[in-house]
TrEMBL record:
One Pfam family this sequence matches: DUF5131
Organism: Archangium gephyra
UniProt-recorded name of the protein: Protein gp37
Superkingdom of this protein's organism: Bacteria
Length: 267
């Protein structure tokens, strides 16, 4: 887990899985892949294997070591619902979220069908918990809009959309059952352009539907120069963050030991 994050809508990141594979146009300039591949072959580096997908069970207990409540982006460097991540491992990750429930978890995927199906079955035990937010990436109409429908059919307490990188106008979208919308442009070399009209359309739809709206960035090759103001102001709205009690040090140590014992049994 990274103690801090430069991602505007979260506080920290937690990566019990590393690496991924491309499945849609939003993946074309993946920042996580670009970062990880810099270190391929560097002995001892967390990304010695580049962006190849692998489980990192030694990272499972990390949220239990944090006493101060944080918004935690789960798998900023992967996708929890990738086809090569076993169901049982996903269940173990989510069980840690229940153990360390003083944090708020932001789970984001492009594999929306698998997330929907697991929330109806093996993850039903966590689907209605208010401190776990379940989200899908939406970059365009062809790939993104079906993910919204999959998410809407998932039995989740909090559902959100990460509309980033936004690659085209989405026109009118159905926000029924959606509790948060993040919008942003692509950044870095080769960044594809973001039209202001696409952003203002989504902002106005969120306003009418009373859905919190967060504008992350305009993006571009030098995103810091473009900033994140939309029509003269920033938009930093979030769903309500639950205020759950922090476990005692003794209870946290016991939970960490439980996770480690479970891993030893399964190895």
């Amino acid at each position: 887990m990274a103690a801090t994050s430069k991602i505007e809508w979260t506080d920290a990141t937690w990566n019990p899985v590393r690496g991924c594979t491309k499945i849609s146009p939003g993946c074309k300039h993946c920042y996580a892949e670009t970062f990880a591949e810099r270190f391929r072959g560097v002995p001892g580096h967390p990304y010695e294997q580049g962006f190849d997908l692998r489980l990192v069970p030694e990272k499972l207990a990390e949220p239990l070591r944090w006493s101060a409540p944080k918004r935690v982006f789960v798998n900023s460097m992967s996708d929890l619902f990738h086809k090569d991540v076993p169901d049982d491992y996903i269940v173990s990750v989510v069980r840690v979220m229940l153990m360390a429930d003083w944090h708020t978890y932001q789970v984001l995927t492009k594999r929306s069908e698998r997330m929907r199906d697991l929330l109806k079955t093996k993850l039903r035990f966590a689907s209605k918990r208010s401190h776990i937010w379940w989200g899908v990436s939406v970059e365009d109409r062809r790939y993104g809009l079906p993910r919204i429908e999959h998410l809407r059919k998932a039995p989740a307490r909090v559902r959100f959309l990460s509309v980033e990188p936004l690659l085209e106008g989405l026109e009118t979208i159905n926000l029924d059952g959606i509790h948060w919308v993040i919008v942003g442009g692509e950044s870095g070399p080769g960044a594809r352009p973001l039209s202001p009209e696409w952003v203002t359309s989504l902002r106005d739809q969120c306003l009418r539907a009373r859905v919190p709206f967060f504008f992350k960035q305009w993006g571009g090759v030098q995103k810091s120069r473009m900033g994140r103001e939309l029509e003269g102001r920033t938009h930093d709205e979030l769903p309500a963050v639950p205020n759950l009690p922090i476990a005692s040090l003794e209870d946290r140590r016991a939970a960490i030991e439980e996770v480690q014992t479970h891993l030893a049994r399964c190895s």
